[in-house]
Amino acid sequence: CADVVWKAMEQNRSGIYHAAGRDHVSLYEFALLTAEVFGLDASLIEPVPDSYFPEIAPRPRDTSFDTTKMEKLLGVKAVSIKEGLFRMKSERTVIS
Predict the structure, then answer these.
(1) Comparison of pLDDT for 60 and 10, the residue scoring more
(2) Is 3 helix (H, G, I), strand (E, B) or coil?
(3) How much is the pLDDT for 2?
(4) Sign of CA dihedral 15, 64, 58, 42
(5) Which residue, among 77, 75, 80, 95, has the nearest Cα to 10 in the 3D structure?
(6) How far is it, in rounded angstroms, from Cα 10 to Cα 85?
(7) Which residues 6+ apart lie within 8 Å of 38 measured at CB?
(8) In angstroms, what is the C-alpha Rg of the chain?
């Protein structure tokens, strides 16, 4: 996200840019990928229906973004969820 903001500032661009990864996954799939990358026990993750989490406002089933404008105009490549998680893991700081 910071890369997108920085590139937009450098190129003096304005408008709306969707800063997101390239994968379209459910929260359950995201949790499984997170467990895989961080070496956590994926058997503890259970899928639940949307109704399990009551919301104040209805949400669409697909909340993914189109990153075409970000990639073409700013030159920022959308990364996969796994790549983003691996980056997060390698760059994390442990606070005691």
Answers:
(1) 10
(2) helix
(3) 87
(4) negative
(5) 75
(6) 27
(7) 85, 89
(8) 16
Side chain identity, residue 34: T
Residue 76 structure tokens: 């920022």
Contact partners, residue 35, CB within 8 Å, separation at least 6: 41, 42, 44, 45
Distance in angstroms (rounded) separating the CA atoms of residues 39 and 57: 34
**pTM recorded for the entire structure:** 0.74
CA distances from 60 to 29, 57, 78 (A): 17, 10, 22
Classify burial at 73, counting beta carbons within 10 Å of its beta carbon; exposed 0-12, middle 13-18, buried 19 or more: middle
Residue 56 above 80 pLDDT?
no
Q: Residue 89: phi, psi to the nearest 5?
A: -65, -40
Length of the chain, in residues = 96
